[in-house]
Structure formats: C-alpha cells, structure tokens
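[Meeting: bench + compute handoff]

Bench side (C.D.) handed over the final construct sequence. Compute side (W.E.) agreed to return the predicted structure before the next meeting so the bench team could plan truncations. Sequence as handed over:
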Amino acid sequence: MKFPRIRAIAKKELIQIRRDPLSLAMAFLMPVMLLFIFGYAITLDVNNLKTVVCDLDKSMLSRELAAQFGKSDYFTIIDRVHSYGEIDGYLDRGEALVAISIPRDFSENIKRGRPAELQVIVDGSDSNTATIALGYISAVTGLFSEKIAVRQSPPLIETRVRVWFNEELESRNYIIPGLIAVIMSVIAALLTSLTVAREWERGTMEQLISTPVKTQEFILGKLMPYFLIGFIDMLISVLLAVFLFDVPMKGSLFLLAGLSSLFLFGGLSLGMLISIVAKSQLVASQIAMVATFLPAFLLSGFMYAIPNMPKPLQVITYAIPARYFVSILKDIFLKGNALHMLLFETSLLGLFALVVFAIANKKFKKRIE
C-alpha cells in the first residue's frame, strides 16, 4: 500500500467535492441545521403547565394555595372558575392540562386539624407530561403543608439530596451530547454513501479500475477527505453545544477528539460499504439514512433507556455504534471520565470500524461485471 496513490485518490475526491455545491452544503450545513432544530425542539423539561383553579372555599388559605401554584414556574393559571362543570370544557378543548379543585370545607378541615382534600385532574393523553405534573403538584402541596403546619414533629429521617453530573437537572445537558452522536451517525454514512456509486453513475469507475491503485488505497483515499469534513462537523457541533446550548464540558477535548475520530472512521466505512453494494446514489443515500438515523435515534439510548427495552431489542443495540458513542459523549461532557473508564465502549467502536472496513474491502472488486 503506497501513500502517493492514496493521496492522489484523496485529491481527486476533494476536487469532486469542491465542484459539487450540494455535497458541500450537505457536509457543513446539515449538521448545524439538525442540531438547531432538534436541540431546540427536543426537551424533557415540563414547564408552564396550563392550569385551571376552581376555588369553592374562597378562604385565605385556599387563595394562598392557589397563589403557591401560580408562583411556581411549572404552572400557569389561565383561569379561575366557580363550578366543577366549567373544568370539563377546558380539559375537553385542550386549553388546560391541569385542573385544581379546592372544596368548600378546605380551610375548615385544616383549622380543625383534619385532613384537607384537594382534587386534582390531569389530562392523561400525554402520560409522560401527566406523570411529571403529578410530581410537581405533590411537591407544591407538600411545601404548602409544611408552611401552614402549626405543630410539626421532627422527622425521623432527614433526606439530603445531591445531584451529580447534571446539578441543574437540565434535560438539554444530556440530550445535546446524544443528539451530536445521532447527527454524526447520519452525516458520516451519508457523506461516503455516494462516493463509489457516483463513480459508477458518471462512468469514471472504469478509468480508476485500469489504474494500479489497490482496493485498500482506493477506499482509504476516498475516506480521507470525508474524514476531514466529518471532523470539522464534529468540532462545530461541540462548539455549538458548549457555547450556544451551555452544555458543560468537564472532560478532555483531546480524548473527545480521539474517540470521535474512531467513531467517524466506522461511520464513514459503513457509508462506503453501502455505496459499494448499492452502486446507485439514490439507493445508497436512502439505505444510509434508514440504516443510521432510526437505529441511532431509537436504539442508542439517546431518547429511550436501553434497560427499559424488551430483551431482544437490548441485544440488537449492541450492533449499533451510536449506542457506544452516545455513552462516550455523555460521560466526557457531564462526568469528565478518562479513557480507562470508557474502554468497553472504545473497544466495541474500534471493533465495529475494523469489521466494516474489512467487509468494504472485500466487497469492492476492481473489475467490471
């Protein structure tokens, strides 16, 4: 294997990329656009829940409780109604997600030391939001109970909660690193999925076959320009994550660069394999999109926890390289983990890259069928 041949193929590919504005746009604009769109659109934080309050007690305590919900960032009181029947309309029309009904004897029961009931109605059509809303309601009512308690016996157990790695519990802090892994999975495969197919469609493959360039030299030469583009895309994504989305970077940038290079090599090799097999740019791009985006989005642990998946799907996730890269990015960004803590993910990423590159070498034949 001779480097001048690899360099010649790489130079040829760079010239083709420069003459193809569409490829350049896809290479540099698509990652930024996807990060903007998904970064702002995807959030697991639940704020400003539209709430209706029905205060039948109309006492100082009931008004104070309603004000407690209004002061919270999680609830936005859109109206105060005077009967149970009015609540139904707001929930049916989807104008409110939460309804709080305070009964007539609310303050009287509290003054007499009896349990005071509070009716809460939550729109369960979005089960995740409803579950979080119920947790917020329990927190607000718990704080209110402590505030108005005349006598409070000391608790037998005092809990002091400390959150590590994501102290603010901001969902973007773990969504953005995972999103980078998903985007780079798609971009890496798409970049190289068109290279070999383009040579066949343009009729230039016959000229390349007639040269003394070996299979490994041809594939490495094709990969080099896209590896550089992919690395620049990765750098841009990390800068946007840190400076635009305020995601903390606690780990080593050099470690992140090294492991990103390993992931990019595997993703680019996968795209090259698709291009070799498909021999059509349209088919290759479609296969690359289906083979990368859906598995990376659904089976990498980016959005859904892998331990919660059915056992057969958990087994399938081991074949998804984005699974390991999502874990690596989250650990480097949020935990600042060193290489020895990421050996399992690194080893499997390296294995995937070597296997896919070897298969691509075997599949590419320097002959016209």
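W.E. noted at the follow-up: Residues 49-148 form a domain with the abc type-2 transporter like fold fold (CATH 3.40.1710.10). C.D. will use this when planning the next construct.
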